[in-house]
C-alpha cells in the first residue's frame, strides 16, 4: 500500500510539473481576421483586424509593440491607414480606408502571452462598388502620430509566420532552462519511484 501511494504521488507531481511548464511554450496563433483571408470585399471595411486565441501583450512605448500594415493593390502597391493600432484582449485592429481595386496584403505583428513576437501576412481582394469613396494611400509606410506609441513597422514579410525577436537568443536559453528543469525533475521522480519499489516489503 505504501508503495502504491508513493507511486501515485510521483505521478501527480510529474503531471503538475508538465502543467506548470506548458505555458512557457504556448505561443498565440491566429483564429480569424477582418477582412477574412482570401475574401472579396465590396464596401470600405473601416477597420482591419486580426484575432488570436489568447490575449495579446501590449508593449507599446517599449519599442516592441504590435502593428498592422495594409498595402495594395498588388500591381501598384501603396500604404493605407495611419500606422496606429489598438489592442483589445486577443484582437489587434487599425483604421483603414482602401484605395484602388485589386489585391491587398495585410502584414501584422503581435506579442503573444509568452512574450514571443509573432508575425504573418494574408491577402484579400478589394472590389468596391460605385458608391465607395477611395483613399489615395501613401507611397511610404505611415507612422503613428500618437506620442510614445512605440510602434514600429511589422517584421520582414519574408520571415512571416515565424517568431521574430531581437532577443531571440535569450528566449532560446529560457526555453532550454525550462526543458532542463523538467527533465531533471522527471529523472528524480523516476529514481525515487524505483527505490521505493525495490525496498523489501516488511513481513
Descriptive report:
The chain is of the alpha+beta class and 203 residues long. It has two domains: 2-23 and 170-198; 28-162, Immunoglobulin-like, CATH 2.60.40. Helices cover 25% and strands 26% of the residues. The strands form two sheets. Strands 2-9-8-4-5 form a five-stranded mixed β-sheet, with no helix packed on it. The longest helix is centred in the last third of the chain and has 31 residues, at 168-198. 23% of the residues are buried. Mean pLDDT is 76; it is low at 10-15, 17-24, 147-152 and 155-174. Residues 1-21 form the signal peptide. This is Transporter. It is found in: Cell envelope. Keywords: Copper, Membrane, Metal-binding, Signal, Transmembrane, Transmembrane helix. GO terms for molecular function: copper ion binding.
Adjacency order of strands in the biggest sheet: 2-9-8-4-5
Strand coverage percent: 25-35%
CATH fold label of the largest domain: Immunoglobulin-like
Rg of Cα set: 25 Å
List low-pLDDT spans. Answer: 10-15, 17-24, 147-152, 155-174
Protein name: Transporter
GO molecular function, one term: copper ion binding
Transmembrane segments: 176-197
Region (Disordered): 137-166
